[in-house]
Amino acid sequence: MYILKNALRTINRSKGRNILIGIIVLVIAVSSCIALSIRQAAATAKESGKESLEITAQISIDRQAMINSANSGENSKSVREMFQQSEDLSLDEMLIYSDSEYVKDFYYTLSASLNGSDDLEAVSTQTSDETEDNSSDSTQTMPGGDMPQDMKGGGMSRGMGTQGDFTLTGYSSKSAMTDFLAGTSYISDGVIFDEASTDILECIISDELAALNEIKIGDTISLLNPNNEDETFELTVVGTYTNTESAVTGQSMMGFNNSSDPANQIYTNYNVLKSISDSSAENAETETDEVTGMTSTSAIRSQVSGTYSFKDIESYEGFQEDAYTLGLSEDYTIVSSDVSSYKQSLEPLEDLSKYATYFIIVVLLIGGIILVVFNIFNIRERKYEIGVLTAIGMKKKKVAVQFVTELFAVTFIAIVIGTSVGAVVSVPVTNKLLEGQISSTEQQDEEKMSNFSSNSDMPSGTMQRNSEMNVISGGLGQQVDNYISEISSATNITVILQLIGIGVVLTLISSLAAVVFVMRYEPLKILSNRA
Amino acid sequence: MSILALENLGYTYDKAKTNVLKNITYEFEKGKIYSIVGKSGAGKTTLLSLLSGLAHPTEGSIIFNGQDIAKIDKYKYRSNYVGVIFQSFNLLPHLTARENVELSIDISSKKIENKKKYALEMLEKVELTEDKSNRRILKLSGGEQQRVAIARALSYNPDIILADEPTGNLDGETQDQIMSIFRKLAEEEDKCIILVTHSPQVANASDVVYEINVDKKSAKR
After folding, report:
1. A399: which residues sit within 8 A by CB, 6+ positions away?
2. Cβ-Cβ contacts under 8 Å, A393 against chain B
3. How far is B129 from chain A (nearest CA, A)?
4. Residue of chain B minimizing CA distance to A397
5. With contact defined as beta carbons under 8 Å apart, do A356 and A38 qualify?
6. Are A170 and A150 in contact (CB under 8 A)?
7. Ranges of each domain in chain B
8. ipTM for this model
9. How confident is the model at residue A194 (pLDDT cuts 50, 70, 90)?
C-alpha cells in the first residue's frame, strides 16, 4: 500500500518529468485512438453492411475467360467462334443449381421483344425527323438480339434477330420484380397481374404508355411478333405502373431502341409469356441461309434469366464452389453486383483502415523506443533514490514495483485523456481522411473507366453482355456515390480496451528497462559514488 | 551479553585485492556508545557498511543477537534491526522530513496507528519543530538534516544505531546537541550506539573506543 502512496507522492513531486512522459503517451494515445477508431469504423461498416446485404447472383457465360483463353493461345478457336458456340443456361439447368443448399431463393424472368399493333404506339423521345421512321410497326434489326433493362445475367440471342418496340417480361414470382421491391416502380392504377395464371393473359403497362395510347384498365392491347407480323397476341391491361427512374434509365439506348425505354416495358407473369413464346415457336417457319448456313426462325426471340438469392456472403461464396460441384461448366461464372457493390462501398474505408494499421505500428514502434530511452535516462537520474530506498531496507523488487506503478499511473491518466481527445477528434479526422481517400479512389476509378472505354473496339455484344465486365464498369460508373463517406461514431469499448492494452504493453516494455536497472544497482556503490 | 560481535572480520575489495580490514574482533553491547576511530583510509566507513549489511565480509563473520547476519535477510536487517545514519544523510529530497521518517516506518512494516503523529514525535525527540518537520529536506540546514537522519534511524525502534561521522559537518554547539541525543538513546532507551568518527571530541564522549587496524580497545567509562 505504501508503495502506491509513495508512487503517487513521487508523481506529484516530480511534475515536470511526469508531464513529459504523459505528453509522449498522450500523443501515442490520441494517434492510436484515431487509428483504432478508423479500423473499428471499417470493421463495423463491414459487419453492418454484411447484415443488411441482400445478395442476388446470376450465372452467365464467362466471356472474359474466353477472351483471355483466346489471347493466351490456350484455345485454338477465335474469340468470335467461342462466343458463337457458347450458350446461355436453360431454365432447367438453372433449376439444377437452385437446389444447392446455399441458395435461399431462386426466381427467373422471361423476356421477349415485340412490336405493337397499329393502335399501340411506343413511347419515344427521339427527334422528330426520326420519329416517323420509328412507328409502332417499324422494326429494327439488331445484331445479337435485345438486352432487356432488368436482364442482368440473361443470354444472347443466336443469329440475327428483329428488334421490337416493346419488351415483354414475364416474372416467375414477385421476388423477381426487383424494381418494385426496390421501390423504383410501383402500381399507380389497377392491380398487378395474377402471378400464377396461365390462361388469362394479363399484363401491366407503364402509365406513360397508357397515357400515350389512352389505354384504360381492362382494355386489351395487341402485340405483334416482329419476325412475323401476322402473329398477334392479345393481353388485358389489369394495371399501370410508374417507374420513377424512367426519365433517367435507358436514355443511352433510347436514341435507337424504343424497347430499352422503361416506359415501353410490359410486365406479365412467366407462364403467360412462356405460353406466347411456345405457341409462336410451334407456328414458326424455319429457313436456312444457303450461303452462310445459318438457320433463322420467325418465332419470337425470348431470353430467360435466373436470379439466385442468398442469405449472406458466406452462402454466396459457398454457392460459387457448390455450383461447379453440381456440374456447372468452367465456361460460366457466377456474378453478383450486390457483392461487388458492397465490397466497393467499403473500399475507401478499408484502404484507410489499412493505412491506419501501418500508422499504429509506426507510432507504437517510435513511441515505444522514445519511452524506453526516456525511462532509462529517468532511472539513471533516480539512481540516488534507488540507493537510499534499498539502503534503508526497501527490497529492490518493491522499488521496481514503485517505479512501474508510477509509470502505469502516468500512462493511465494520459490514456484516459488521450482516449477522450481521440474519441472527439476521431470522427471528424476520419471523415476528413475518408473524403481524401474517396476522391483518390474516384480518381483511380475514372482512370479505370477510361481504360474500359479504350476497349470500345471490342465486339459490342462482348462488352455489352459480359456480365463480369458489366458489373465492374457498372459498379464504377453507377456506384461511386455508394461509398461509405461518413462515419458517425468510431470509438467504442473495443477501441478503449485496445488502447488500455497498448498502454499496458508500452508501460511494461518501457518499465522493463527500469526494472533491469533497479535490479542491477547496488546501494553501497550508488551511495559511495555519490559521497 | 553483546548484541553485535565481529569475529575475525576481514574485507578485501575485489579489484585491489588488498585487505582493507583484517582480523577484527569487536563486541558491542546495548546501552553504550562506541566510537570507531582510525586514520583516513583505515576502513572505518567500510566497517560501518559491513555492520549495516550493505557490504559482505570476505573473512570472518558478524554476529547479531547470536546469529550470523550472512544468514539473515539483509533488507529486513537494515529496515528493522539497525538504524543507519549516513555521513551524507541520504534523505530523499522530494519528501519532507516527516515523510522521510514515515517512509522508513512503512518499509520496516512496523504497526503504528498514527504514523504521522508518531513521525512528528520522533522528530520532536531530536529537537525538530513541527514546522521544520513539514519542510522538504533541501529547506533544512545540515544540522537539521542530521537530526532527520537520526529520527529516521530511530523511527522503527532498532536496537543498534550506526552513524558515520555524525558530527562531521556540524558546529561545536550542534555537535554537543547531537551527542547528547545519542547519550540519551544509550542510557534511557538502552540502544547500542556505534559511531564512526575521526573527531577526538566524539571519541572522548563515547563509552568505548575501537581504533581500527591497531588492535586496541580503550574503555572510557
Report:
1. A386, A389, A390, A518
2. 75-80, 107-108
3. 23
4. B75
5. yes
6. no
7. 4-219
8. 0.91
9. confident
* CATH code, B4-219: 3.40.50.300
User: For residue A427, what is its C-alpha cell?
Assistant: 470522427
Q: Which residue has the cell 558491542?
A: B28
Q: Is B54 on the interface with A (CB under 8 A)?
A: yes
What chain A residue is nearest to B92 in terms of C-alpha separation? A385
What are A54-100's pLDDT values in tens digits? 788 888 888 777 777 777 766 666 777 777 777 778 888 888 888 88
User: With an 8 Å Cβ cutoff, are A530 and B152 in contact?
Assistant: no
Which residue in B45, B84, B87 is closest to A391 by CB distance?
B84
Asked if A524 lies within 8 A of B55 by C-beta distance, the reply is yes
Residue A265 phi/psi, 5-degree rounding, is: -90, 130
Residue A158: its pLDDT value, please?
Answer: 42
> Band of the pLDDT at A395, cuts 50, 70, 90?
very high
Mean pLDDT confidence for A356-380:
88
Give the minimum alpha-carbon distance from A360 to chain B in angstroms, rounded to a whole number. 37
Given a contact cutoff of 8 angstroms between Cβ atoms, the answer to whether B19 and B10 are in contact is: yes
Task: Tell which phi-psi region holds residue A293, choosing left (phi > 0), alpha (psi between -120 and 50) or beta.
Answer: left
Say if CB A32 and CB A422 are below 8 A apart: yes
How many Cβ contacts (< 8 angstroms) between chains A and B? 58
A6 touches chain B (CB under 8 A): yes
Q: Which residues contact A149 (CB under 8 A, 6 or more apart)?
A: A167, A249, A250, A260, A262, A265
The set of residues, in sequence order, having a beta carbon less than 8 Å from that of B77 and lying 6+ positions away, is: A393, B53, B64, B69
User: Following DSSP, what letter does each residue of A61-128 receive, concatenated?
Assistant: E-HHHHHHHHHHTSSSS-HHHHHHH--PPPHHHHHHHHTSTT-SEEEEEEEEEEEE-TT-PPP----H
Q: Which sequence spans correspond to the domains of chain A?
A: 2-52+344-530, 108-309
Distance CA A218, CA A240 (A): 11
Q: Give the pLDDT score at A487.
A: 66
Helix or strand (DSSP H, E) at A324: helix A313-325
Grid coordinates representing B37? 576511530
A388 with B94: Cβ contact below 8 A: no
Q: Do B106 and A388 count as a contact with CB atoms less than 8 A apart?
A: no
- CA A450 from centroid of its chain's CA atoms: 21
Query: pTM for the complete prediction?
Result: 0.63
pLDDT at A374: 87
Round to whole Å and give the CA distance between B94 and A140: 97
CB B8 within 8 A of CB B59: yes
Whether residue A442 lies within 8 A of chain B, CB to CB, comes out as: no
The answer to whether the Cβ–Cβ distance between B106 and A6 falls below 8 Å is yes
- In 3D, which of A305, A299, A306 has the Cα closest to residue A277? A299
How far is the first Cα of chain A from the last one, in angstroms, to the nearest whole number? 32
